[in-house]
Write a structure and sequence with these properties.
The complex is a heterodimer of chains A (717) and B (176). With 717 residues, chain A is of the alpha/beta class. Chain A contains 22 helices and 27 strands. In chain A, 31% of the residues lie in helices and 18% in strands. A seven-stranded mixed sheet of chain A has the order 15-14-25-24-23-16-17, covered by helices on one side. Chain A is globular, with a radius of gyration of 29 Å. Chain B is built from six helices and seven strands, in the order βααβββαβααββα. The chains are: A alpha/beta (717), B alpha/beta (176). At the A-B interface, helix 3 of A face helix 4 of B.
Chain lengths: 717, 176
Amino acid sequence: MAAPQDGTVKLTIDGREVEVSRGTTILMAARKAGIEIPTLCHLDGLCDIGACRVCLVEVAPPGRLLPACTTPASAGSTVKTDTDALRETRRRIIELLFSERNHICPFCPRAGNCELQDLGYRFQMDHVRYAYLHPTLPTDLSHPHIGMDHNRCVLCGRCVRACNDLVGAGTLQVSGRGGKSLIVADAGVPLGESSCTSCGTCVQVCPTGAIYDKRTVHWARRWIPRETTTTTCPRCGVGCRVVVEVQNGRVLATRGDWDGPANGGRICRRARFEWPRAEAEAHRRPLARTAGKLEPTDAASIARDCAARLRTGRVATDPTRAAVVVSPSLPIEVIAAARGFAEECLGGARFDTTDGAFFRALREVYGSAFAPGSRPPEKGIEGLADADLVVALDIDLDEEAPVAGMGLRRRLLDHEATLIEVAAAPTRMVDLAKMALPVQMGGEAALLAAWFAELAARPSVRERFDEAARKELAGFAPDRAAARTGTSADAIVAAARLIGAASSPLFVFGENLVRSGGPLALRNLLALARLIAPAGRVPLASVAGGASSVGAALLGTPKVGLDLVRFDPHEIDVLFLFLGDNVRGLTGAATVNLRAIPFLVALESGPGDADGFAHRIVPVPHDLARAGTLVGIDGRVQTIEPVAGIPRRPGDEFDFIAALADALGRRLPFRDAEGARAWIAERVPAIESARRDGARIPTPESPADWVTPTLPATEES
Amino acid sequence: MDRKKIATVWLCGCSGCHMSFLDLDEWLFDLLERVEITASPVTDIKEPPEVDIALIEGGISNEDNLRVLKLFRERAKILVALGDCAGFGCVPMLRNFFDRQDVLDRAYVEAESTALGKEPDEEVPKLLDKVEPIHHFVKVDAFIPGCPPEASAIRTALEELVAGRLPAGKFELRYE
């Protein structure tokens, strides 16, 4: 280990003495001294490769030009970053870049927004002194969203490094040598047929017009003002902070906020390409179904129709025959409004979120440790950062929490963690998994019981179990689990060994584990987690896909819930479905049930799954136009800001609820988002304090009175 | 004070740079107090006399472009590349990505509006293999980039040139 005095070096940069820790690059040392060295291939957050030479500086010794981004500061050296000779050298480097391919600014859509062009201006390049090479290079337009024009590529390699270092996808690579190099996907297949996850990080980091968003690239005009808003993407529970650029009322680009606490600059395809698109096709008017067809109507008639329905038939005297079901992707203010509407205004109607069944199952298994107002005592998704073994149980992280999946991929590629994937069908991440256990639906509890039995037999924990317990555990032999799961006993044992050998395992799961494995799977998972980690937070991470799933759960289990997948539609006369942007869609089973409802009102921003059978459609704001609070995975509290420049349309859930309450002549606990916030703050003060501190809802360590299952169980036992 | 003589010409370009020059509006009257515009598309005088300053719009695409460029170079004390075509090649340079003969065939033989077309062998100057910026052929003393250059950049450059100075670094660069 280096002695403390060896930890730093002193050098002189542009006459200023700088002290930095050993290994710091000249670029970073200069930045520390407040000196900015021009760069092109460097990007904070990516490893440096010294590809472009724009950051060349004079270093003595050795008395020659060295790239600042890859040269470590050396003790006693003198660095000059801005001399006439350097400016001339940099200008020549820019000219070489311009001469190499087809950089003709006037017909490049990135003109006015291009780092290469900016460097040309900065170093006064008013013509190119080298002969143009003008190679004829291909353009790859095979991907639905991303265009790749090699003619405009400067081979800085930022896209390759982003795809590998930030995203962990490893799709983009460099082929060939020197100036003939090309950026390729998967060793040379069209991008649209490659392993690309469509996150578009390459678009975000490309300094020129080489990689671009096909939809918007030709819209951008330098002279049309742009509006920029930083907000939170509501398309899953990760809570990525996103910078949205708007021009002429349309989203020009979204990019990951480099300072976003949950995403560090990354976003997935939803935030990059899907979320911004939906606004264009938003519902403009309320619709009513007459003779099987949806026809335009107005908000007042919808309120009257709903009130009339609620006063007719059995629902008039039995409020539980009305139900309100809310997408957990909406801000918690809207979820609270829907809940207040159901429980107070409608006098005890059923209320649920579409993922309510998952949280009910979690509450049942966690018991006192997951009380209203708190979140489960889990390590959570943040545990991915230091887990050395991740067991993904019936979850496709690329779908449920894509940016969290990127972080995991990176750790898997770096061999900092290994992955065991348990899934009926392999996910895209399976290529990075050490083991993949194909487990039939319903076999999860048996698998977890078998793992428990294997790990309980280890000498270190064996004495915890008495004779009776050991006898019971013998019933969970791997071969029995093999029959139940359809995966081999050897694989089950091998996986158990990996789990046993891990110093910090983490089990990640979501709604599918409960849907497929039932409550027993959760129970056995908790027992297994407790066996591995008897104290502190359990090494589990429950991943709910809604942007406010955890927030909705914090409000507590509703008095009378409604699981869209399992309820009896004959028990419901009127159902209000708050879908917002239809982010999660409706499952097939839910759709079958909903079709049987006599009167269904869908509140949605644009076309969605309910359009085929809803009796009324109430337009609500698109997520781009919303304000509110999201409480997502790991209890992260973030705000969603209305994106500046996106046209506002009147009418939202609060207006609908207020109009209906007035038509019914009933009172509401609150009538707007501000009232909702106060109502929430009263019930869950932790949300407001976390919002103030930019923090997450605290997780309880395991409470003293918490009793967890000590043995697994299966249906037979 | 003797008025400085200026000549301008438009080679393989679109005339946009001259339009931007005309965008100087009433300042042109101030300019005319100080300079005399000789050969120019604006005056429709083709052959320049000996001049102090020549502004060249457009790159070099055919033999006649090259002849005119050399003539202007011979007769001008200061030769200026006006716009991105003269200085960089710009849009006309797109044809460099195709074979010269293919370009001619497309224009004169295959074009939908052409019946029994053939490549002209007289009256039309012979196309060079590639379009190139003017500094590949002659010495250029100053560059005013832009597609077209902003009128304000042209004005600043002319103020400097008329005062006998080179304008490099005096205006904001722009390639679009």
